[in-house]
Amino acid sequence: KEQVFSGVQPTGNLHLGNYLGAIVNFVALQSRFSCVYCVVDLHAITVWQDPAVLTRSIREVTAAFLAAGVDPKAHIVFNQSQVAEHAELAWVFNCVARLGWMNRMTQFKEKAGKDRENASLGLYAYPSLMAADILVYRATHVPIGEDQKQHLELTRDIAQKFNNDFRPQIEAKGFADGFFPMTEPLIGGPATRVMSLRDGTKKMSKSDPSDYSRINLADDSDTIAQKIKKAKTDPEPLPSEEKGLEGRAEADNLVGIYAALSGRQKAEVLAEFGGGQFSTFKTALIDLAVDKLGPITAEMRRLSADPAHIDAVLADGSERARVLASETMRHVKEIVGFVGR
Ligand code: TYM
């Protein structure tokens, strides 16, 4: 059975990269798959979060899902901490995953920085919890941006080792092809890697100290205009062909954003704007961004004015997610050999 799962961290500053790299695809997949979309609050606290800000961010990410067009009735939208099975399966996976595998995770190295001794144990185990998120629904497809690819590879390694370590028990239960599927990442859609507006070699990120590095989904039109006007460029006019973007990371990124927001190819965008000045192109990009993001921002504001409604959506989604997750955990406990009811 095909099942989609994906998650977004409620760590503030939901941005254009999250939107184009993930949320747009969440919406598109709904017509073909049964989908579970999760606000991963357990992942958020691997780095200290101000509790009041965390609460607000959980609701903001939920509002963004809904505003972008995720249907919480036909599919499932919930926050991770309400379904205890995620943490429960993560513990089992902590005992399946090898230290050597975790030591290769580049996101840990980036996030822990130089002071690794002082990083939380949770940050180190983060990918194991992510594997549990996915596999507790035995998800077959996971839409993500480019930066999460390595975590999906680890998820497959964990699934495979679990399937091997407990092969006789799994077969005895009648699962002929292993218990956990080999989950496929879906890295596609309009923009798999949106870069910082200040530095075309760095990805757009929630944690960049400069707010001018990203367009937040919560930004109003004036702020979007300011940020695009100030976005780094080079002195050359735009090229007419895609080849001409090589070695021009900032130009490439802005053209990519324009293409993604307009649903066109970069080549088409360059056919229109190539040879022209950046200022002309930036004005067009501002109009496009405000036009496409404005309605989503407005709907997020409207939804955020009614937190009780958001919380009800999450409670309902959690209840339905728990039904699926507890079914998997029941099997896992039997497979591993735990005694239970
Ligand atoms: P997070 O919260 O950092 O980002 C959410 C999604 O947005 C994508 N993304 C980007 N895509 C394109 N360009 C960018 N600049 C950009 N920045 C972020 C991410 O790839 C992601 O798809 N570990 C995950 C959350 C998670 C998860 C999961 C995802 C936890 N459990 C299970 C999938 C399945 C994360 O930190 O995403």
TrEMBL record:
Annotated Pfam families: tRNA-synt_1b
Subunit relationships: Homodimer.
Free-text function comment from the UniProt entry: Catalyzes the attachment of tryptophan to tRNA(Trp).
Motif position, 'HIGH' region: 10-18
Keyword Aminoacyl-tRNA synthetase part of the UniProt annotation: yes
Gene Ontology cellular component annotations, sorted alphabetically: cytosol
Family: Belongs to the class-I aminoacyl-tRNA synthetase family.
Root EC class: ligase
Motif ('KMSKS' region): 203-207
CDD domains: TrpRS_core (cd00806)
Cell location: Cytoplasm
InterPro entries documented for this protein: aa-tRNA-synth_I_CS, aa-tRNA-synth_Ic, Rossmann-like_a/b/a_fold, Trp-tRNA-ligase, Trp-tRNA-ligase_bac-type, Trp-tRNA_synthetase
Source organism per UniProt: Rhodoplanes serenus
GO BP field: tryptophanyl-tRNA aminoacylation
EC id: 6.1.1.2
Residues at which ATP binds: 9-11, 17-18, 145-147, 194, 203-207
Entry keyword Protein biosynthesis: yes
Binding positions (L-tryptophan): 133
SUPFAM superfamilies: Nucleotidylyl transferase
Protein name: Tryptophan--tRNA ligase
Catalytically driven reaction(s): tRNA(Trp) + L-tryptophan + ATP = L-tryptophyl-tRNA(Trp) + AMP + diphosphate + H(+)
GO terms, molecular function: ATP binding; tryptophan-tRNA ligase activity
Keywords for this protein: Aminoacyl-tRNA synthetase, ATP-binding, Cytoplasm, Ligase, Nucleotide-binding, Protein biosynthesis
Top-level lineage group: Bacteria
